[in-house]
Amino acid sequence: MILLKTASDLSRTLASRRASGARIGFVPTMGALHPGHLKLVEHSKKNSDATVVSIFVNPTQFNDANDYAQYPITLEKDIYLLEQAGCDILFLPAIDEIYPRGTALQEPYALGYLETLLEGKYRPGHFQGVCQVVHRLLELVQPSLLFMGQKDYQQCMVVRQLIHLKQLPVDLRIIPTLRETSGLALSSRNLRLSEKDKEAATAIYRSLQMIRNELRPGNLGPLITRATNEIRAAGFEKIDYVSIASAQDLSEVSNWNGHSPLVALVAAFLNGVRLIDNLSLAEAGNPA
Ligand code: PAF
Fold first, then answer.
1. Does 58 contact ligand 1 (Cβ within 6 A)?
2. For position 282, what pLDDT does the model report?
3. Measured from the CB, is residue 29 less than 6 Å from ligand 1?
4. What's the predicted TM-score (pTM) here?
5. Candidates 37, 40, 133: which one to mutate for ligand 1, based on the most atoms within 8 Å of Cβ?
């Protein structure tokens, strides 16, 4: 694995790989890697000739300075894991390499209603920051394939919108969420949970499964209330949202017609750690 720290070294190295016909696969990360990230690397390796992983904790996507300050950093372990996973190039830039003209957003991305709901509502500016960094990284890496995890469902939709807005020639592949046997979705933020908290945190997945099992056409309000109560009872001190939404555009669905594909999404705080998860729900006659 080659480790590169500057944008110019990265561009030069990739230009020569591309010139020899290599299809580049790209996995952007903020480090604190777990098997979910390594799954993305595995998919990239299967589908491309050279895999680039970036580790960059992007300051512009944190609306909460505390969250940024506490974001886990496990660089030595990350490098070891990426070597083992067969990553070809690790890009490890400093802030100046990503934002040579400063971190201020030059021009907002036209994300429309997508950034006004769910994560967008509770983390104002978050998706502008995500677009800012992903756009810059995509321009530097110029991958054919981009691998991202379904755990960040709305982020995947935002990045798809970015690709469309900027007409970027990249194919976004969304990879299913990896879970612990308890059902807890793998996340870098789990590093901040005690074993007891991890046990309590499984309430999110259980409530998502409950929604999937109990889903019937008609009013979805009672299901939302039940899931919210279950999560609260497990010890979560704050619930940003429990939502059942259109799988296609994330608009909230309060009365289901029994046919349209849905996704259930949750964001909640456990001992100060904000966890998110989601589950695709069955379409009638077509279990998810
Ligand atoms: O999902 C993440 O880890 C980040 O939002 C990403 C896509 C690497 C951008 O900083």
1. yes
2. 63
3. yes
4. 0.96
5. 133
Q: Which ligand 1 atom minimizes the distance to the CA of 130?
A: 9
Three-state secondary structure string covering the chain:
CEEECCHHHHHHHHHHHHHCCCCEEEEEECCCCCHHHHHHHHHHHHHCCEEEEEECCCHHHCCCHHHHHCCCCCHHHHHHHHHHHCCCEEECCCHHHHCCCCCCCCCCCCCHHHHCCCHHHHCCCHHHHHHHHHHHHHHHHCCCEEEEEHHHHHHHHHHHHHHHHCCCCCEEEEECCCECCCCCECCHHHHHCCHHHHHHHHHHHHHHHHHHHHCCCEECHHHHHHHHHHHHHCCCCEEEEEEEEECCCCCECCEECCCCCEEEEEEEEECCEEEEEEEECCECCECC
Q: How confident is the model at residue 230, as a pLDDT?
A: 98
Verify whether ligand 1 is closer than 6 Å to residue 28 (CB atom): yes
The residue whose CA is least distant from atom 5 of ligand 1 is 130
Sites in the chain below the pLDDT cut of 70: 282-288
